[in-house]
Amino acid sequence: MHNKTIIPQISSLDFHTKEAINILRGNIQMAGYNVKVIALTSARANEGKSSLSFRLAKSLAGLNKKVVYLDCDIRNSKTKKRYRIVEKTEGLSEYLCGQQPVENIIYPTDDPCFDIIFSGKYAPNPSELLSGELFLTLIKSLKSQYDYVIVDTPPANLVVDSVLVAKNCDATIIVVESGLTDRREALRLKGLLENAEIKVLGVVLNKIEFAKKRYGYGKYGYKKYGYGKYGYGSYGYGYEEYIKETEEHRKADKNESKS
204-239: per-residue pLDDT in tens? Predict the structure, then answer.
């Protein structure tokens, strides 16, 4: 592990959002002992996936579980900027290019249970790097060291990187933005993961407005991110239920606006 301690600047959450994340955390714990490496992805950009990944990792660390947050968005990571980390760091891309050993890219934080692996410098060939043996070796190593590995991936409908990463994880969580991700995008994402035989724990409906709180938890949540009730595994809805119910709510909203 690196000898440099990182102190991310994390803004506080309101009570309802904390509780929603805690429910997500609890459902993950109930998913099974072997579900330790969990990827989060979305259909498109800016759906709140990265923020949820980081918060989820921190929440699991709050249970005194040893957790590492692995940023696999080599193309367009915003983790350092979002949490105002100004220190020079090495990351995933440097490891995958053979420039750094794994111990040099794991950074401890001010939370003794929470470590970070940053994405590293932009690389022109992330798909090739993420599909190589070094990435699989990294995942196996982290799984042996940590209780949970939370893996933040790029939007799956935009680049293949997410599927390549998820294939080496125990399970995947899908994040969709309320009122933005449409049926076609959700179905395409479903097909991508199913064709790759990737286990999906469930769907999180994100960025939920208070006026439509029947969808999920909280007024807005972190930076207007609300973490929804659509849950994981047997605790929530799957793709078909999400798509059907979302369409029903949109029709109802249109009818209300006409009346």
Answer: 877 665 444 433 333 223 333 333 333 332 223 334
Q: Tell me: pLDDT of 247 over 80.
A: no
Encode pLDDT of 189-198 as tens digits. Answer: 888 888 899 9
Is residue 134 a contact partner of residue 98, using CB atoms and an 8 Å limit?
Answer: yes
Residue position matching structure tokens 């190589």: 132
Tokens representing 209 are 């407005």
Torsion (CA) 208, 156, 202, 73 in degrees, nearest 10 = -80
Rounded alpha-carbon distances, angstroms, from residue 196 to 43, 94, 156, 168, 193: 15, 27, 12, 11, 5
Q: Kindly state the tokens that stand for 44.
A: 């498109």
Kindly list the distances between the CA atom of residue 200 and the CA atoms of 72, 102, 172, in Å, as whole numbers in the listed order: 18, 28, 5
User: What's the pTM value of the predicted model, to 2 decimals?
Assistant: 0.80
Measuring CA to CA, which residue among 144, 133, 149 is closest to residue 96? 133
Strand partners, 39: 151, 172
Which residues does residue 122 pair with via DSSP β-bridges, in sequence order?
none
Q: Which residues of 59-84 are buried (b: 16+ CB within 10 A; e: fewer)?
A: bbbbeebebbbbbbbbbebebbebbe
